[in-house]
Structure formats: structure tokens, C-alpha cells
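Thread: Modeling a multi-component assembly for a lab meeting

Hi all, long-time lurker, first post. My supervisor asked me to bring a structural picture of a complex we are working on to next week's group meeting, and I have zero experience with this. I have the sequence lines for every component (220 residues in total). Could someone generate the structure of the whole assembly? Inputs are pasted exactly as I received them:
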Amino acid sequence: EDQVTQSPEALRLQEGESSSLNCSYTVSGLRGLFWYRQDPGKGPEFLFTLYSAGEEKEKERLKATLTKKESFLHITAPKPEDSATYLCAVQANGQNFVFGPGTRLSVLP
Amino acid sequence: DTEVTQTPKHLVMGMTNKKSLKCEQHMGHRAMYWYKQKAKKPPELMFVYSYEKLSINESVPSRFSPECPNSSLLNLHLHALQPEDSALYLCASSQGREKLFFGSGTQLSVL
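Re: Modeling a multi-component assembly
Sure thing. I ran the full set together rather than chain by chain. Output:
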């Protein structure tokens, strides 16, 4: 069975304090790994797609990396507006998207 | 146009009411999805339509009835819901291996 776990469950950072979020997965044939940002009461907003081990994507203060078993979302010098829940999802051979439980990030000014 | 539009944004209904949630996309995506999300939980798949045909029903109770009138529209008909059905209902679309595009959701409260 395809599974996705994320750690930590919640993370509090001071503004400017860099850190990383982890997404570990067990799937039969990875077709893609996706990172989303979700604000309370809103739909998830797409951030990155990663397709193969070694791939990296960057956008502003965020950088996503992928290995054969996990992905990291690195946040460099975060700002309070980066506070949100970050969701990881995988698409496997079955083609359904499997979501992890998310990491709730709070960035304090 | 890279948007998925959901209406209404908020809905309050009684347990005997009948209501419908609507979703629209004009990106030419052939797969459309309904997800249910409870607070502090990830989205939970309910239904998938592929080329306007229901391809996945994740054992959802019959009080939820999906409909795909055409390739751009997706409806979710609600009848005799329970208070535990209160949640954020998300519509999404995708094209094959590509990412899911989500709408902003309908926040449903069942009284």
C-alpha cells in the first residue's frame, strides 16, 4: 500500500531561522512527488513537482529535493507570510494522489 | 485560465436539506476530483471522474452523489447529511501525470 508520512507535525520558527520539512514515502513506482502550501480554509496551492531522485526545484525562499525514499522542503530565512500547512503528495503507478498528513509551519516575527 | 472555481464558498444546511456544490475548470483537464478535508487532516479522496465517467468511488455514503455534466463541470449533490459531514470540500482537476489544481473549497456546516 502506498504511504506518505511527514515530519515534524508542527514547526515553529523565528523569522530568518532556516529549517527543513521532511516527506517520506513508500510507493510502488513513483510517477511524481508534489509539494503544496495550504492556508486555513483555502484549497492547497501548488509549489513543486519532482519526478526523479536527485531532482531539485527552487522558488523564492523554498527549495525542494528528492531522493529514492524521501523529499525535503528547505525554507531559507522564512518570513511570517510563509506560515501555512505544507502538504506532500505522491502519484504512484495506480495514478491516485496520496497525501501526507502535512506539517503546520508557524514563523514568528 | 488556470483556475478551478468552486461555489458556494460557504454553506450551512440542515440534516433534511438538499444542496449542491459546483466546480468548474476551463483548462481542458480530463480528470476531476472531489476531496473532503477535516481540520488539521490531509485531503481525503471521495470521487474521481475521468473523461466524464466515474472511475473511483472511495466507498462514500450514498448521501453524497457526484455528477459530471460535461468535461468542464463537476457537481456534488448532498442529501440528508450528518453533522460529522461538516468539512471543507475541495474540487481538483488534473491532466494525466501533471499536478492537481485545487479550487478554494466549500466550507460546509451541517446543523
